[in-house]
Amino acid sequence: MASPLLEYANARIKIEGNGTTEKVNGRFVTTDLTSYLLICYLKRVQYTGVSSGSRKIPLPTELNGEMLPGVSGDSFYYRGYALQKIILDAETDWLGDLTGLTKVDIDENQDYLTPESRVLFKFGNEPVMTGTIQRSTGIFGGGGIDELIYPEIGLQLQITGAEVL
Questions:
Q1: Which helix (H) or strand (E) holds 149?
Q2: What range defines the domain where residue 130 resides?
Q3: What whole-number distance in Å separates Cα of residue 59 and Cα of residue 21?
Q4: Are 40 and 80 in contact (CB under 8 A)?
Q5: Tens of pLDDT along 85-105?
Q6: Higher-scoring residue by pLDDT: 39, 61
């Protein structure tokens, strides 16, 4: 059953899967990387205690804001649900039209959604951001009531996203 939030989906997250590691000519290489695209319904959570609702990058406490000379930006926290997934091939434009691609409803936790994974992230009409998955289990740790919520609504997801200029 498709999530009732699907018609309000407002975000896409592209994730590189883990692949397999092999030893080739004495070096470890990763092969068979699979990319996943998540169709999500997310809400930006405004940080409290700051006027803009974001966390500045770099923080003023990091070498007086000069830790990354010439670079600045904002990081926001996003919370919501991953509703569907698509397995991407190398030729598919993840920001383009998804008509004709096989979409699978997400009704359980996904093994490639590990905390601190780096992803590409598109929220609404904003530019593509670099994101970090913070959590991909519900408020009950993925068990109990969460197991009832996933098939009906989607997988709870928390991510930080930053546009650095």
A1: helix 145-152
A2: 6-164
A3: 36
A4: yes
A5: 999 887 889 999 999 999 999
A6: 39
Residue 72 located in a structural domain? yes
**Residue length, the chain?**
165
Domain presence at residue 1? no
* Alpha helices (H) in 57-135, listed in sequence order: none
Q: Tell me, yes or no, whether 27 lies in a domain.
A: yes
The pLDDT-based confidence of 30 (bands split at 50, 70, 90) is confident
Picking from 98, 151, 152, 91, the residue whose alpha carbon sits closest to that of residue 122 is: 98
Helix (H) or strand (E) holding 159: strand 155-164
Rounded Cα distance, 109 and 155, in Å = 7
**Residue 49 amino acid letter:** G
Per the structure, the count of domains in the chain is 1
